[in-house]
Amino acid sequence: MNKPIMAKATAVWLVDNTTLSFRQIADFCGLHELEVQGIADGDVAGGVRGFDPVANNQLDQSEIDKAEKDPLYKLRLKFNPAALGEEKRRGPRYTPLSKRQDRPASILWLVKFHPELSDGQIAKLVGTTKPTIQSIRERTHWNISNIQPIDPVALGLCKQSELDSAVQKAARKRAAEGGLMTDDERRKLVSTEQSLEMGTEPRLPSAISGLETFTLTRPDDDEEEDRLVPDADSFFNLPDNGDEEDEDDDDPRR
Hints:
By secondary structure, the protein is mainly α. About 45% of the residues lie in helices and about 0% in strands.
């Protein structure tokens, strides 16, 4: 690990029991030098009990002796095999209690605007579980009617850089699989900075997509209609009836 466990309590112990400089203690505990100075002045970590790093197998006494003699010497954390891989532990991130009620809204936002993200990516971004994500995808969540989609970055559940990284990873995976993307999906699969720099492209409404090669009228339509549709007089000009003339000729009264 890069810093000892209970770093602030360890800093309290080192301030009280050694003559190390504030910079040495800050570098070893992963704190700011002014924070260590605040511990020495009693303004920071009030009431925190010191944690002995030597007794807890995190630091050798010889390291403290060297650092006290040389102000430029940096303390080295004692090797602990049990701590290997702790900084790379995977799984959902911890979400504060005050923000856990906002997770369904952020999940709905990610599902709606970034459907290419997998359940594992969403769980890692906002610190939730896959069954919760699945229930929101299928709209079977108990409170789905009252959930409004909200950007997880705006809620403070993740950073914009983390969201952009997940979206770009999804884009590379989809491109490797050879899937075709629409213009809207392609815009969603780029980072925020790239999306803002992209120019607008004229697009047809989705309702008539695919009809761009056809037109509603043709230049010869008017001429064809004139030839095919008869005028009004043709409907009322009845042909001469020769039978009536014959009957008049045969009339014996004439």
